[in-house]
Write a structure and sequence with these properties.
Distance between the termini: 81 Å
Oligomer: single chain
Mean pLDDT: 89
Largest sheet: none
Order of helices and strands: HHHHHHHHHHH
Number of strands: 0
Structural class: mainly alpha
Helix content: over 70%
């Protein structure tokens, strides 16, 4: 139980640090520079918290309800504090494809995300080196190494990442149908369910930059194999979801309604 309290304190410290950066950026760096700092701070927060939750789940052997509750709570906090930051290269690429963002801005945003992901690795290692809990001490003995995160084959793991990214993108595209007060909780519930369903196979990360921070340093597979699972899988999941709901389904529904509607008066004449 002590490990849980210590991890909660680490999570709180990461949240406060990230929030401080966001507020400082809003005051001192308005405009484009502020947006980049917002993206970096929010990505740093996401990666730091996930590092701690992953370590707590793997080492402290939490009961599944406790682990899922922590995932849900932290997801709600992230979604409530990001203030428009995506923290996901797939979302940045989506903006470029839709014409709502420039390629140059996208490159800078993705660079900020990956820079924050690396910074989160150093932050996590620095906190763990303090040995604040038994969980941190045990991890320190292994040299802060993590082991194979895949519980299935590469194809199975990539399929899980693809499916998770598809589901989250579909939920985001239809979130307008949910009451505004419940939207954050709806997305958090979807993400928590996906973590429960696919966590044992791939970790259910479905975010390329987050995977780069918490999964790529792990032994067991090469960088190219991790790229296949954690980069190609989510990107294809997002792309296939957009293609399905914005191209294929409208095309099929439009095809079925191509016949012009006959006015009611003409219908009555035909029946007489």
């Amino acid at each position: 139980m002590t490990a849980l309290y210590v991890s909660a304190a680490v999570l709180g410290a990461a949240l406060l640090l990230s929030e401080g950066i966001r507020r400082t950026a809003a005051r001192l760096c308005p405009g484009a520079h502020g947006i980049y700092l917002l993206e970096a701070a929010s990505t740093f927060q996401l990666c730091c918290c996930t590092h701690e939750l992953k370590l707590l789940g793997e080492t402290a052997q939490l009961e599944p309800p406790v682990g899922l509750a922590l995932t849900y709570i932290m997801t709600v906090i992230h979604l409530s504090t990001f203030r428009g930051a995506t923290c996901n290269p797939s979302a940045v690429l989506e903006r470029v494809c839709r014409g709502s963002g420039s390629v140059r801005a996208a490159i800078v945003l993705v660079a900020c995300q990956f820079g924050a992901a690396v910074a989160a690795q150093y932050f996590a290692a620095s906190v763990w080196s303090l040995g604040l809990s038994d969980v941190h001490i045990r991890h320190q003995r292994f040299g802060f190494r993590c082991f194979d995160p895949l519980g299935g084959t590469l194809l199975e793991a990539a399929a899980v990442e693809l499916g998770c990214a598809f589901a989250v993108q579909a939920a985001a595209m239809h979130i307008h149908k949910v009451d505004e007060k419940l939207r954050v909780h709806f997305i958090a519930a979807v993400i928590t369910a996906l973590v429960y369903a696919g966590g044992s196979i791939s970790g259910a990360v479905f975010n390329p930059v987050l995977a780069f921070s918490i999964q790529f340093p792990c032994s067991g597979h090469t960088y190219l194999e991790y790229c296949f699972v954690y980069w190609l899988g989510p990107v294809l999941g997002v792309a296939s979801c957009i293609l399905l709901f914005e191209k294929i389904i409208p095309f099929l529904s439009g095809k079925s309604t191509t016949e012009p509607e006959v006015p009611a008066v003409q219908k009555q004449k035909k029946t007489q």
